[in-house]
């Protein structure tokens, strides 16, 4: 969605700020949708989250739908895998939570969630995920890892092969397993390598492509066809 305008030094507005957000509600939900927005302190080039969180009932903002995300040749998530792993760094949980909603309602897939955050208080949607893990105990498991504090009941660190083996589906499931990774660029790169862009002749931004599988997931034995990087 498009948010507030950033001002130049002389007070004239620059182009409107824009940022992509993924709904966390089920796509079939009628008339409304839910966004997970974190209101970071304002900084140059940012501020959309704080703007959205500051909206009052009756206010509006402008948004547009992106094209469907193609995941290894298809936008479908139903009926493709028997076990799905969701690896989220911070706010990267948002698009993965919607996948969780879709799979729980419309599929029989098992889902293993790995949510990695700086501290316990940074974990978004924790209560919701814990309740789902309890309600669907035969299908949903949740593992949390903290990078800047040690607490009983939590794993520690940004991730390694041992954490993969503890928290995610086994790569031996071949084409019946899919691992989705979402977070800041550095997080995704650590787990699966960079998301790259196609080269263009005019210097414009090419569309995103998966690039080779690297990082923790490659070290843990997954194949590029078993991983999708946001």
What can you tell me about this protein's structure?
- The chain is of the alpha/beta class and 230 residues long.
- It is 22% helix and 21% strand.
- The chain contains 6 helices and 10 strands; from the N terminus they run E-E-H-E-H-E-H-E-E-H-E-H-E-E-H-E.
- The protein has helices spanning 48-53, 93-106, 126-135, 161-167, 185-192, 215-219, and strands at 2-7, 13-18, 83-89, 110-117, 140-146, 155-156, 177-182, 196-197, 208-209, 227-229.
- The protein has a 6-stranded parallel beta sheet with strand order 6-5-4-3-7-10, with helices on both faces. It has a two-stranded antiparallel sheet with strand order 1-2. Strands 8-9 form a two-stranded antiparallel sheet.
- Strand 4, helix 3 and strand 5 (140-146) form a beta-alpha-beta unit.
- The longest helix is centred in the middle third of the chain and has 14 residues, at 93-106.
- It is globular.
- The chain starts with a strand and ends with a strand.
- Residues 1-12 have low confidence and may be disordered.
Could you write a compact summary of the structure shown?
The chain is an alpha/beta fold and 230 residues long. It is 22% helix and 21% strand.
